[in-house]
Amino acid sequence: MDPGTDPRPDLAPAAPYAKDKTFVAVVGVLIAAASVLQIVGGAGIMKGRRWGFVLTAVFAAFSILFHLQGVLHGTGLVGIAVHGVIVYYCWARLSGKKGPAPA
User: Fold this and answer.
1) In the predicted model, is pLDDT for residue 37 greater than 70?
2) Residue of 98, 42, 40, 35 lying closest to 63 (CA atoms)
3) pLDDT tier at 17 (50, 70, 90 boundaries)?
4) At residue 75, what are phi and psi to the nearest 5 degrees?
5) Among residues 59, 7, 67, which one has the least CA distance to residue 38?
6) How far apart, in whole angstroms, are the C-alpha atoms of residue 3 and residue 28?
């Protein structure tokens, strides 16, 4: 038997790192979709629309959750503070406590 051939061709790997490439592609698509939604939320805020503040507050709240993981590793406090301010600002505008309430 030649050492370069596999006697079990049915068990040979299809392509090394094929699962890794798929995972990276899925994560990339999710990040791109989240980025587009955040840009849309920012445009809504600039136009003074209620949905823009809500969308931005929701994404900022999710970001706080992700930054909590970073606190375990000694990072993430700045991200929590920044997104906390964003959530507060969106809440204050939605409730009419800061500036006019959005339409």
Assistant:
1) yes
2) 35
3) low
4) -125, 180
5) 59
6) 39
